[in-house]
């Protein structure tokens, strides 16, 4: 048996390829939408992808199940559990508790593990060439290394009302009945790693075991003591913000993401053409450089979507349900531009018109910033300015610039009701060190807000404030 993990550092998301070397058949679980890597991996091992499956209706990326099945002719499998409200809207084979998929001499058994979502499936894998007992467990967003999937995303991102309590109860039962009943040696392969917003304490290890989690996971003591309420209380406390785009991912994944097919090569665009498009509003510019480079000068009205995390930051910055303005990417060549496009389509940002390697000939500006030493006088001069902390609410609660309001960088574009009117005065924005802030500030400027970034963000302000021998932070509940 072959088992390979395909990991996306951008979204902290894992897919898996399982192959039977005797028959050359392969299964991919939870593929992302840019499917070339799976095709190349299967070809590298001399295998053909015959089956595609997913664990649940994802919230943080667009599923590639339909895309990969269309590209290979593979049979697609999805969950049939969860009740009427959690049925997929596209044609595929439905799996229920105990159903199996045969892959040569390998057997994959579906286990219904609700909690993170009502329809969630995990997959037990038995390598029939050696044993008739399962040895591997693909847990999706059920069990992570050191954590479990959060049950509050339906409330946070999908419009649910207090579903987190029922989800937490389901998760406790799933751990009790579908995880801890397994032998300690079973290897666990989760759907996410550290950095994902699908849990609050995900470990960075790519895999774990049932025995290790049984002994060391934070939740283990509650299961040992059969303390459901204690488990629920700790699970729900301190979960991070859910990004606004999660709601769109849920809707599109349930319906079935649009098929991309083979993408055309990206063409270099003439800067005269780009400038005309920007002036007419028929193109939008994406500066893919680091914030440090952007702060030395960027295209007026550009989004700042650093290329290494183009999926994450692109989903924060651009809403394809609200507009379809084609994007022009700043990239050194077509290969780099197409790699960035691959990241963007993972979150449904599909409208990429082309790229340019230069800013020459385009209208440019230097983003407005204020240093920590200048902040107090700036706020005195601009009485209508509003300080906006674009970090997570948990970070804000631990300490923040006094009088700032908190609105996560993944939400600012989608919650104008929580911001002042665009003509009310400047926004002074900050995050922890500046990257998230640069992304959020660029999106807000493009949306028409007057934005001034706090240089160095909270880390710089905190260090400067400490030097002044004044209280370093204002914490939640302080007078």
TrEMBL record:
SUPFAM superfamilies in the cross-refs: Metallo-hydrolase/oxidoreductase, Rhodanese/Cell cycle control phosphatase
GO molecular function annotation: hydroxyacylglutathione hydrolase activity; metal ion binding; sulfur dioxygenase activity
Top enzyme category: hydrolase
Pfam families: Lactamase_B, Rhodanese
GO biological process, one term: hydrogen sulfide metabolic process
UniProt name for this protein: Hydroxyacylglutathione hydrolase
The entry's keywords: Hydrolase, Metal-binding
InterPro entries for the chain: Metallo-B-lactamas (IPR001279), Mito_Persulfide_Diox (IPR051682), POD-like_MBL-fold (IPR044528), Rhodanese-like_dom (IPR001763), Rhodanese-like_dom_sf (IPR036873), RibonucZ/Hydroxyglut_hydro (IPR036866)
Top-level taxonomic group: Bacteria
Residue intervals of the Rhodanese domain: 279-306, 381-470
Enzyme Commission code: 3.1.2.6
């Amino acid at each position: 048996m072959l088992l390979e993990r395909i990991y996306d550092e951008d979204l902290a998301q894992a897919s898996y390829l399982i192959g039977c070397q005797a028959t050359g058949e392969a299964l991919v679980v939870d593929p992302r939408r840019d499917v070339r890597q799976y095709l190349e991996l299967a070809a590298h091992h001399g295998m053909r992808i015959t089956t595609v499956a997913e664990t649940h209706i994802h919230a943080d990326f667009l599923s590639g199940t339909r895309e990969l099945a269309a590209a290979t002719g593979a049979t697609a499998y999805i969950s049939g559990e969860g009740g009427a409200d959690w049925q997929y809207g596209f044609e595929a084979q439905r799996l229920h508790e105990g159903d199996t998929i045969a892959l040569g001499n390998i057997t994959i058994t579906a286990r219904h593990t609700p909690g993170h979502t009502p329809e969630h499936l995990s997959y037990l894998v038995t390598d029939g060439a050696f044993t008739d007992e399962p040895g591997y467990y693909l847990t999706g967003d059920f069990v992570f290394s050191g954590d479990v999937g959060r049950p509050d995303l339906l409330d946070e991102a999908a419009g649910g009302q207090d579903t987190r309590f029922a989800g937490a109860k389901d998760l406790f039962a799933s751990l009790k009945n579908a995880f801890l009943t397994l032998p300690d040696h079973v290897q666990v392969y989760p759907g996410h790693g550290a950095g994902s917003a699908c849990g609050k304490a995900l470990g960075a290890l790519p895999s774990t075991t049932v025995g290790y989690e049984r002994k060391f996971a934070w939740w283990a003591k509650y299961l040992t003591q059969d303390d459901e309420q204690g488990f629920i209380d700790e699970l729900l406390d301190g979960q991070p913000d859910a990004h606004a785009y999660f709601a769109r991912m849920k809707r599109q994944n349930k319906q079935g993401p649009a098929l991309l097919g083979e993408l055309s090569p990206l063409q270099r665009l003439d800067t005269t053409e780009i400038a005309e498009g920007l002036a007419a509003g028929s193109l939008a510019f994406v500066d893919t450089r680091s914030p440090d480079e952007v702060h030395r000068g960027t295209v007026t009205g550009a989004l700042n979507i650093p290329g290494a995390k183009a999926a994450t930051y692109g989903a924060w910055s651009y809403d394809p349900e609200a507009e379809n303005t084609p994007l022009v990417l700043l990239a050194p060549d077509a290969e780099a531009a197409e790699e960035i496009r691959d990241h963007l389509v993972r979150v449904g940002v599909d409208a990429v018109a082309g790229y340019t390697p230069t800013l020459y000939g385009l209208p440019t500006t230097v983003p407005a910033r204020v240093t920590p030493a200048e902040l107090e006088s700036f706020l005195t001069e601009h009485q209508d300015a509003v300080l906006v902390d674009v970090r997570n609410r948990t970070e804000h609660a631990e300490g923040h610039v006094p009088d700032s309001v908190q609105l996560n960088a993944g939400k600012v574009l989608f919650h104008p009701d929580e911001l002042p009117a665009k003509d009310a005065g400047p926004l002074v924005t900050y995050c922890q060190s500046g990257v998230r802030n640069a992304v959020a500030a660029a999106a807000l400027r493009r949306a028409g807000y007057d934005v001034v970034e706090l240089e160095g963000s909270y880390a710089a302000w905190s260090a400067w404030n400490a030097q002044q021998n004044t209280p370093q932070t204002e914490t939640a509940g302080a007078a």
